[in-house]
């Protein structure tokens, strides 16, 4: 692609504006400790201290630098679509500061520079040293691509060279890897932008080394004299280093780490043609998306370890479903599409983008969920085992990984629309955008218009510089059972999809028109019968949007609402509500409490009363009065 | 009552035999560290060390002595009904040993004597010092009543005198109380058996002092220099000392502590006529039994703090529902019946006795549940937040409070059958027994025969020494909607129950016969609509017995079984099964997994297949092959 598509979409442009106008400025204030009442970040101050420009102690998490990196990466994507000289100046100054904080040998990490200068590379398992490097590399690549400025890229190449001199198979080098995967995918990006194979090989080294026996983390612990069993059930499943990656068949452990690793594995399988790695990616994809994923594309069923638990264990109220994990799932899905175009990857990517990722932020971009539950009873959040579930979004987190991660995802949303392969353009996502492709050394202009996700009509104009033959493949979403397609007004059969895509291989002429109508009824979704939590329950979904019930619309005790099996599901677009959403209404029944009496248990028939159920998009919940929320509702 | 009724009941006699033949001997071995493979108790060794008869360190919990006390109490009850000279000799020797371990001033606690001799009474909040004393007092009272031997009673009177010299309102005395209530109810027993009002007053002092401000635990912590906030959400709700007891309206905190305290409050309200205390007892009773109790009479919805959570929060899979807590509920109920005869107390007592208490032990008396969940998916017990839920009973616990507590309850089960008040005999429970009452200085012999809980027919013969007028009041259980009553073959109307009891006030002659037939169909029980967990679900109950589904009878994935609303519930008594139980069968429907495919979510109608559901008594679950278990089943 010639450049990132220009997103003109109503739905996503609003989010991008929020990120540009609210999230990025707010987070900059937060990183600089200028937000009253919010937990101090100290992240910029740490860099100033490391750069010798301030005195003081390091404060914050060992991975505090990564917040700055993710912010910078979000800024880069935002500048690419919305130039802003003042913001760019702020970023340039920050990059100068990072340059000053870089050590003689290229090393750059404020925690170790300020707090433990003699302990570099001694605790890869816990200390996020390469993780932070990875995020800063991603920022450097994005900033270079957005602005053409090499300074941060050069800084990070120097650091990557430093890392390469320390890690590797050669004698005297550390045969290890980070406890929190991230640098692996970052090095692939660095390789892509620099063309330097050293970075690709270093990424491959980290992936190949992972999980080998004797275990690196054991050896490393022994050197440190640390004899405690690892806190996560004594198992390195936590960091997916329990087995060599090619032998892994089930998603385990910390879900964000898993996503970043699987993304890197997909990258490497694609770049190196490693079939075993590809097979592992597909096996793991199948496990995550068919056994361990919530309907919102939330992942991580367990708070302990922010982790996967086991197949079909998907409790709606105990889940972790971290915003960052769904974001990581998007990263992985995009790379799986490179490896093999298949709508099952794009379906999940779309599910995550419209549900489990953006639910992490309120509509104003001012408050954030770290945990995205599917069922909330605010009172129950006082339980010790549900204390991770916050009933309302929070201002800024102590561990503030999610807000900047979401900012960089939204700011780069255009990257996820298309996949290119030789002279094929795959349209994965439907959103208003203008894109320019290079095909056979010619420009191809594409302009997509749609009111997605509220309406399934998509118009695309295709304008190659001159008439030529190439393929545009359109994804028919998994949720869509009826679609109509026209090219220049002529109906095209869509029976013969290949892996969920309709291939339009033809000679395209300037100003050709594609019209795709995806029928978008409200569906009653059922979960696999092995998901014990959801037996007898249904979730409403329209197009890619998962719906939920909120107390503010339905009054308290949402589980006592029963949706009759054949109740008509009415929809209307409410422009005033939640930034403009389609609302679902249905005549439901509700358990009557008023004449039950005080007995806790009795042999009685339940009585019901009619209730007009109102469902709103899950991603937009908790933007009005706080209260209960429920995705999976009882059905009768 | 002249003495403890002689229990002849088929159901309970089997349990009493198990306690006598298995539990008591096994626990003695365990207390003496002679059980291979079990966690070392060290409890007897601690006493030997304290007595100067052995050298070594104290080992175990600070409350290790209480295991010995509870064992001794169980022995006493067992000896009362089943004399056993050898066991009595063992007990006498243990009592001699305890005498040797008692200090000059009467003090008796092996932890402090051996490990922290200079720290007596410095950390009442955490160290269970008075708690252990309480249990030993209960043992002493029971042993005296069973054997007539005063030695342990005298030992414990001396210790109680020592405690009385240390605690009280007078200057120089500690104005405090124990973090774990227990001594309060024990001192009432000591008062009852000795007639010494000092013990009643000391109990009242502890109850009255609790929760006063400035808070004793704060003052005590300050003296120790302990400035950490209390670990339980920083709240003394944990030990029900957050408010003066008369102001408490909701059950909070550690549920066993709560039960022991409420039991003592009921005792004191009864003995002292304190109306405010009585009102508090009734308010708390209403809260516990109508808002915070499982259908099994399990209590404690939260593992953290082994505690109550809040009204209607009754998760079936996350609950704590400790065996000891249900036992405590029985203690409290019995005392509420003294305070005010009302079948609502006896109903709960019965519910606890036939469900949530005895579920804590396998049928052989060899393995024990500490936590009694209402829904078990064994795989899910690997989750960190469900690790307290064991899918199978354990041999002996590190913290072994439940097994000896259950032993003492079962061995004294006869104590719970009747409540006496002047010339009134209240029959609370139906179980085969022979009892002798003193009424107007004459003996009244009662002989109850029944196959309860499997059949609701109860025959009672009443034989006063000579004809006289008095009242026998029979409880009509809350679960019974049709009962028939005959006295000497003549039908007696039972419309006019008073607080759930039919009062038979008449002249009773030798060998009068009462026949009570309690209709005992299988009921589909519903939970209050505010119990979100159980909406759309039903539990089966026959008489006092709550039923459950087990994997061994129904194959895996129990939540996918739907009991049709009008399915016939067939019962049959299976003499071979689980020691002889009534089994419930019904034609149910089950979600079909086989043709669902691999998709985790889809817009599809569920398919069902017929399944003959088998339900067995909850208390007897996990006595065959381990697996899933479910009380609240889906209904359609």
Architecture overview:
2 copies of one chain form a homodimer. The first copy, chain A, is of the alpha+beta class and 636 residues long. Among the domains of chain A are: 229-415, no CATH class; 418-518, Immunoglobulin-like (Sandwich), CATH 2.60.40; 522-635, no CATH class. In chain A, 35% of the residues lie in helices and 19% in strands. The first copy, chain A, contains 17 helices and 22 strands. The first copy, chain A, has helices at residues 10-31, 43-50, 64-81, 85-101, 110-115, 124-127, 129-147, 151-166, 183-194, 197-209, 216-224, 255-272, 275-291, 323-339, 343-357, 402-411, 551-554, and strands spanning 6-7, 375-376, 418-421, 424-427, 433-439, 442-450, 457-464, 468-475, 483-487, 490-492, 501-508, 512-518, 522-527, 537-542, 545-550, 561-563, 570-574, 581-591, 601-602, 608-617, 629-630, 633-635. Chain A has a 7-stranded antiparallel β-sheet with strand order 1-5-6-7-12-9-10. Chain A has a 6-stranded mixed barrel with strand order 14-15-20-18-16-22. Chain A has a 4-stranded mixed β-sheet with strand order 3-4-8-11, with helices on one face. In chain A, a hairpin with a 2-residue loop joins strand 14 and strand 15. In chain A, helix 3 (64-81) packs parallel to helix 7 (129-147). The longest helix of chain A is centred in the first third of the chain and has 22 residues, at 10-31. Chain A is globular and about 75 Å long. The termini of chain A are far apart. The mean pLDDT of chain A is 96. At the A-B interface, helix 13, strand 13 and strand 19 of A face helix 13, strand 13 and strand 19 of B. Strand 19 of chain A pairs antiparallel with strand 13 of chain B, so a sheet runs across the interface.
């Amino acid at each position: 692609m010639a450049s990132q598509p220009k997103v003109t979409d109503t739905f996503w442009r609003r989010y991008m504006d929020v990120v540009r106008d609210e999230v990025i400025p707010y987070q900059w204030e937060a990183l600089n400790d200028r937000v009253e009442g919010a937990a101090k970040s100290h992240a910029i101050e740490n860099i100033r201290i490391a750069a010798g420009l301030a005195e003081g102690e390091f404060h914050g998490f060992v991975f505090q630098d990564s917040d700055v990196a993710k912010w910078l990466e979000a800024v880069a994507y935002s500048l690419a679509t919305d130039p802003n000289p003042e913001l760019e100046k702020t970023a340039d100054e920050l990059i100068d500061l990072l340059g000053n904080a870089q050590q003689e040998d290229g090393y750059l990490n404020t925690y170790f520079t300020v707090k433990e200068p003699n302990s570099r590379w001694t605790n890869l398992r816990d200390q996020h040293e390469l993780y932070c490097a990875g995020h800063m590399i991603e920022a450097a690549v994005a900033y270079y691509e957005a602005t053409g400025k090499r300074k941060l890229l050069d800084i990070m190449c120097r650091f990557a060279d430093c890392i390469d001199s320390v890690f590797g198979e050669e004698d005297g080098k550390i045969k290890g890897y980070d406890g929190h995967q991230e640098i692996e995918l970052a090095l692939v990006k660095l390789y892509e932008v620099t063309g330097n194979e050293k970075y690709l090989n270093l990424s491959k080294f980290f992936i190949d080394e992972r999980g080998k026996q004797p275990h690196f983390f054991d050896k490393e612990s022994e050197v440190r004299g640390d004899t405690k069993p690892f806190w996560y059930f004594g198992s390195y499943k936590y960091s997916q280093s329990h087995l060599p990656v090619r032998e892994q068949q089930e998603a385990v452990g910390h879900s964000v780490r898993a996503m970043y690793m699987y993304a890197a594995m997909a990258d490497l399988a694609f770049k190196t043609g490693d079939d075993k790695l590809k097979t592992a990616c597909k096996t793991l994809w199948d496990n995550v998306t068919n056994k361990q994923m919530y309907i919102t594309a939330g992942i991580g069923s367990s708070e302990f370890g922010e982790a996967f638990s086991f197949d079909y264990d998907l409790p709606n109220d105990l889940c972790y479903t971290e915003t960052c994990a769904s974001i990581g799932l998007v990263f992985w899905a995009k790379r799986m599409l490179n490896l093999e175009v298949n709508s099952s990857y794009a379906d999940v990517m779309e599910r995550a983008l419209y549900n489990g990722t953006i639910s992490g932020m309120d509509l104003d971009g001012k408050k954030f969920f770290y945990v995205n539950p599917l069922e909330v009873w605010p009172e129950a959040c006082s339980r010790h085992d549900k204390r991770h579930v916050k009933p309302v979004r929070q201002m800024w987190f102590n561990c503030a990984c999610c807000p900047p991660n979401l900012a960089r995802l939204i700011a780069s949303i255009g990257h996820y629309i298309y996949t290119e392969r030789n002279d094929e353009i795959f349209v994965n996502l439907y959103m208003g955008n203008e894109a320019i492709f290079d095909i056979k050394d010619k420009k191809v202009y594409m302009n997509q218009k749609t009111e997605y996700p509220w309406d399934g009509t998509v118009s695309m104009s295709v304008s190659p510089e001159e008439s030529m033959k190439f393929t545009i493949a359109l994804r028919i979403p998994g949720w869509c059972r009826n679609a109509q397609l026209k090219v220049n007004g002529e109906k095209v059969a869509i029976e013969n999809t290949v892996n969920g895509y309709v291939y339009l291989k033809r000679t395209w002429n300037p100003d050709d028109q594609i019209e795709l109508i995806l029928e978008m009824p409200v569906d009653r979704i059922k979960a696999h019968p092995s998901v014990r939590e959801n037996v007898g329950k249904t979730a409403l979904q329209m197009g890619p949007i998962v719906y939920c019930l909120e107390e503010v619309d339905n009054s308290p005790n949402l589980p006592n609402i029963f949706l009759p099996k054949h109740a008509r599901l009415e929809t209307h677009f409410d422009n005033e509500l939640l930034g403009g959403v389609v609302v679902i209404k249905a005549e439901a029944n509700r358990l009557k409490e008023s004449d039950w009496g005080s007995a806790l248990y009795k042999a009685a028939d339940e009585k019901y009363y009619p209730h007009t159920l109102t469902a709103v998009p899950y991603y937009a919940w908790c933007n009005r009065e706080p209260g209960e929320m429920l995705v999976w509702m009882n059905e009768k």
